[in-house]
Structure formats: structure tokens, C-alpha cells
Amino acid sequence: ETLWALHASDPNYNILNPCCQAMNSPNPPGIGFNSIAQKTMDYMIDEGPGRDDFVRYWKLMAEAVVDHPSAYAAELANEPMTIRRREMFETWRAAAEAINSVIPDMAVAMSDTGENGLQPAWVDKIAGPSAFIEKDTVEWLKSSTTLFYAWHWYGFPVDPDTAAVNMKELGKDWNMPTFATEFFDCKAWKSAAKYNISHTYWHYSSYCTTGPAFGNRSAPNSTFGACILGWAGGNSEYDCE
User: Fold this and answer.
1) pLDDT tens digits, one per residue of 61-96
2) CA-CA distances (angstroms) from residue 63 to 92, 126, 195?
3) Which of 99, 105, 132, 158 is the most buried (most CB within 10 A)?
């Protein structure tokens, strides 16, 4: 936690702080489940001021883009690292309802732990009752006309066809389309296409010049962009056809 405090309040915190640098390169997955990260997630999804601020943020975002037809969807949180699915989906519901109160037809993404295409069995075992979504929220998921289920594939499950089939079944069960919003590998592209699932490759171009891939330039004076994961991952020449 002491390391996380370095450069606090600096507008370039996310490219100067060593923990943020570790997240960006090489991004060890365990960082998402350390104590401070989980406290942050709990604050965001538990009923109270954190959830209220999160919902208010998304309502303000909707109000800001209400007259921009190109803003057609909202993905509420990228790869949310919490196994407390009950509280997480209550938060998604509150945010979606706030967004749709401003833009009734804006699509809103629902996503699960880490945005995986298949939830590991250990999630239910460790999370206990918090792993299970409230019944009335499940019914809301099934009855809504603006939701879609966003998922990623980065090697789990090993065969992306397994993830795609699982997503097709979840889509049927929850009565909503699914969307593979991130992946690196053409195998995932082809699996999604095979099962008629919308898909977007991550990602088209690098949006920063920070970190070891760019020679560890001095930040922020010799770098460009607000790096928040995906350093040097861009490839505008990528083609899966």
C-alpha cells in the first residue's frame, strides 16, 4: 500500500507510480486481487457512497453524450476484478437504469469477474452467497432490451470455441446478445465469427509511448498518452481474415 501511495495526487500518477507501471507491463493478474484493489472494488459495488458515485458518474456521462449519436453503448467497467457477483450486478443494474433514464436506447454492457467467457468453478466456492445474483436482478437481465454481455478471451478457457459456446448459451438464458469486446488471438476472432457473435480486436493502435516497449522514456515529458493497460499492444496491420 505504501508503493501505491507514491505520486498520489500527481496528474500523471498512472504513468509514474510503480504499481501502475507493473499493471501496464507486464500486468501480472494477481494485482487485481491484492488487498487495496479489493477494497476499491468493494467500495464501488457495495451499497453506499461508492456505488452512488459510480452510478452518478455514468449518469453524468450519459448526459454529456446524449446528443452524440456515435455514443451508442457503455461498458461500465473493464475486467472487474471481484468475485462478489451479487453486489457487482446490483451495481451494474443501478448504473444501467441511470444511463437509460437519460438515453433510453443506449446499450449497456453487463460483465462478470474479469470479463471471462467462462467463470471458473472456484469463484462460487470462494465467494459463497455473494457469487449468486439476486433473483429479481436475473429477471431484470432477461427482460431488458438494452443490455448485452461483454466478454474477453486471453487463453481461458484454452479453446475459444468453449468460451463462444458458453456465451451463446448464456445469451439464450439471459435473453441478450453477447459481444467479445477484447482478444489478441485470431482463434478467438474465428470462434466468435463461427458462432455469429460480435467481436472487436484489442487493439488497433497504441495510445501511449510509455514503458519498456518504448525504451522507458521519461514520464511525462518524453511520453504521450495516458497508459492504462495495453502498452504497445496496438497493431493496425492485424488481420484475421
Assistant:
1) 999 999 999 999 999 999 999 999 999 999 999 999
2) 18, 38, 35
3) 99
